[in-house]
Design brief:
Blueprint lengths: L18 H19 L15 E9 L7 H12 L3 E11 L2 E2 L12 E3 L2 E11 L6 E9 L11 H6 L4 H4 L11 E16 L8 H7 L1 H15 L4 E9 L2 H20 L1
Antiparallel strand pairs: 1-2, 2-5, 3-4, 5-6, 6-7, 7-8
Helix pairs in contact: 2-7, 5-6
Length: about 260
């Protein structure tokens, strides 16, 4: 069983008489001891400025052809349902961040997150005269191979570039991006399973050891994940398949109603 070897030093002798205050202080001191042991004392605090972004391209409306694959699939599926759709894009430059402390793995001043240019895509869709619809966003870093687009095709062919390289020779903006999140709105309700992943965490393994942490996680999973379901009028997801499947489900439903 993992052991930290941590012995608490109470702030005052009679603290034990107030059990809530005692264990609150114990938890805080133990968390600090774990962070110090793992070399995270200063890094736990750094992160407030991890995502300092500068808008380098204001929000502009874009067509379906300019969207990345996931956003395009969602917008196409919504259009087939007869929903009103809109799409737009922005671009941001994310400044680099640096480690503030020195540990075994890095020195103070080393780059923690490098600078990058990111394209952000947004799509909204809404069924006419209804609250049914969704809003979603995708984000992707600009492709470092983008400079190839500046070469002329005859010159590029003379360089004996592969077909894959030649495919990069385009003047269109880069169309990469993964789903950040989508909120689906459905007045009829979206059925979801009441489920929580009780898998053991780093903290539980440190506190209980691998075996007991897994046993506790399995017990909680058995006790609470009982396949119960509930209907919600809004649902957030970060999985493209969930979003597109939900849109297509409404397409099938509308077809069934039309046939009836």
């Amino acid at each position: 069983m993992a052991s930290l070897g941590f012995n608490m030093t109470p702030s005052r002798a009679d603290l034990i008489e107030d059990r809530r205050a005692y264990f609150a202080e114990y938890g805080a001191q133990r968390a600090a001891a774990v962070a110090e042991r793992d070399g995270e004392t200063d890094d736990a605090a750094e992160g407030d400025d991890e995502d300092q972004a500068i808008v380098t391209e204001p929000s502009i409306a874009v067509s379906l052809a300019e969207l990345p694959t996931g956003a395009k699939a969602a917008m196409l599926a919504a259009a087939k349902n007869g929903w009103e759709t809109q799409a737009w894009r922005t671009q941001t430059h994310v400044e680099p961040t640096f480690f503030k402390s020195t540990t075994e793995s890095h020195n103070a001043g080393d780059i923690r997150f490098r600078a990058k240019d990111v394209r952000n895509y947004y799509v909204t869709a809404k069924a006419p005269a209804s609250r049914l619809g969704f809003t979603a966003s995708w984000s992707g870093e600009n492709d470092p191979k983008r400079p190839l687009a500046r070469l002329s095709r005859p010159y590029a062919s003379a360089l004996w570039l592969s077909k894959k390289d030649l495919a990069l020779l385009t003047d269109k903006p880069e169309q990469n991006g993964s789903l950040i999140g989508a909120t689906m709105l459905d007045p009829e309700g979206i059925e979801v399973e009441l489920y929580f992943d009780y898998k053991e965490t780093r903290a539980s393994v440190l506190a209980l050891g691998p075996a007991l942490a897994k046993k506790r996680a399995d017990k909680l999973d058995w006790a609470y994940n009982d396949k119960s379901r509930v209907r919600m009028t809004s649902l957030f997801t970060n999985k493209s398949t969930v979003l597109v499947d939900w849109i297509k489900k409404h397409h099938a439903t509308s077809n069934e109603r039309s046939a009836a």
